[in-house]
Amino acid sequence: MSVLFFFLLLLLLQSTTRPALSKPDPQEQFFADCPPASCGSGLQIRFPLRLRSSPPSCGLEGLELSCRGNDTLLSLPTSPVPLRVSAVNYRLRLLTVDAGTGSLCPIRNLSSLATSVYAPESLTGYSLVACRNEIEPGPDVAGPVSCPGGDADGATYAAVYSYGGMDLVPSHCTMVSAGGEVPAFLDWDYAPEYRHYGFRDTAEAFVRTREVSLSWSVGGIDADCARCEEEGNMCGFDRAGNRSFCRRRRGPDVKLIAGTSIGGFVVLLSVSLVLLYIFGKSGKEKETQLKVERFLATYKSTKPTRYTYSEIKKITKSFKHKLGQGGFGSVYEGELPNGIPVAVKMLEKSKGEGEEFINEVATIGRIHHVNIVRLLGFCSEGMRHALIYEFLENGSLEKVIFSNEAKRNNQPLNMEKVQDIAIGIARGIEYLHQGCDQRILHFDIKPHNILLDNNFNPKISDFGLAKLCSRDNSIVSMTAARGTMGYIAPEMYSRNFGTVSHKSDVYSFGMLLLEMVTGRKNVDPAIENQVEVYLPEWVYERLVHEEDLGLALVKGEGEEIVKKLIIVALWCIQWNPEERPSMSRVVQLLMLNLESMQIPPKPFVSSSDSISTSGV
């Protein structure tokens, strides 16, 4: 401790006696040129946002606001009129805007506001129904709803939570229209009075406030700024270095005269930092707990069984048998009181601020499909979160295709079974994209997340990175690339390749399919020069030149299946998302004969291509 104290003292002495620099500090220059601005007495606008009256270098492209009197306005190509901004959350990258009207009739489709930069945050679906008699509102039914001209037919109108459907209303009610959307939960920083977030609560809150939160995303810089704001600092931009920087907020300079005063200040500062860390961590944990409980209140009618932590310990026999380790926690074998075997995932406290837990329950907690793993229950006590899944005897597909035994035997499954597994996975993804009220984008399709039952039927698992979006518009706003290296679509890294959508899952499926067929990883950490062994290029060249893939045990009909699966995979991994098939089309392709297949264009640009085309 004495060594640390002495080191801090030296640092402080150095900082207080350092001579002034002859060159101006570029960080100070940025804030001198781009001070926080506002529209009259309105919101404070600062980097990465900027007002139109500020220099273009004061904000990121696409994050421009304007003024009308004291109102701050956001202009979107998807909105006929500018939207008034009522709140800005730099930490969460959210703008709260006035949607113009809070009426639920006619149907409101807030997803239509989405652009390449902005996307409505956390929407929930609803349908509009007309009832012959009065209808009693409930947790998932909001009403009565006022409709233009609705008084003429004498009907009572109501908004019904989409996932409950017509089962939530009496038989004398009929559906008028579907596909409506309202914010699923309000921005807690600006609406602390709303503590419960059932559908009726959020629908009525939207009618009152007319507000919807839009998240912004323009690349890595705005994500860095969000982390900077999270720490209570201010973000700026170094034009010379073309990068963002984070400046601590500071008050007036204080000159310390005596050495004892400096020492006392250091001690006080150290104690304060320790206390701030302790209380800050505690406050963050409470915020995460509140976030999870609000979510559970929203989905109380659809979520699976809730267990206590002590029950989880009994189910897993005090976490006796560990099945594996994932990106968000450890998985243990267990057994429910009724004797059903289960797999229990204990989520790590430091991961995701409850996001992975919420994503899992919000997606697979309310859907059932033969090719999607079932979520049987969960636990949420303080910062302890657990998810209980059905137990699948054969583990992950990764163990089957990449195990040492698989390498020795060249392929532990025959090609007919590999094809069946591929079709099952494709049907599962197709259901996520097309079979639910809201489209579910998985964003982490890979062999490790495909589980196999005792008959080697595949089930998609691990929805921790999933996102919900409208079935009509699957373009989503991303703060950073999601997924696992080797399976992430190019557009997840750069907008130059296109927009992030359901086609990103198609790309991941294509990479997975190549690995299933060849038994080779598309990214092998044991090989230093990955360019020389890029799996799609290796496979494509052998396919077009009819060279051997080195699958010694594959003969006859199995060879045709291999070629067919490779052709489907190469269509799926086209770099341009628009050239990839939908998952519905992928399922159809997998059912065709090889003779009906067309070899796709090369799904990548090799070094030889770039050299040969440079002279054209």
From TrEMBL:
Please verify whether the record's keywords include Nucleotide-binding. Answer: yes
Q: Which residues cross the membrane?
A: 256-279
- What PROSITE patterns does this protein's entry cite? PROTEIN_KINASE_ATP, PROTEIN_KINASE_DOM, PROTEIN_KINASE_ST
Is-annotated flag, keyword Transmembrane? Answer: yes
The annotated topology with respect to the bilayer is: Single-pass type I membrane protein
Q: Which InterPro entries match?
A: Kinase-like_dom_sf, LRK10/LRL21-25-like, Prot_kinase_dom, Protein_kinase_ATP_BS, Ser-Thr/Tyr_kinase_cat_dom, Ser/Thr_kinase_AS, WAK_GUB
Record's superkingdom? Eukaryota
Q: Which PANTHER family match?
A: RUST RESISTANCE KINASE LR10-RELATED (PTHR27009)
**What's the protein here called?**
Rust resistance kinase Lr10-like isoform X1
Organism source for this protein?
Answer: Iris pallida (Sweet iris)
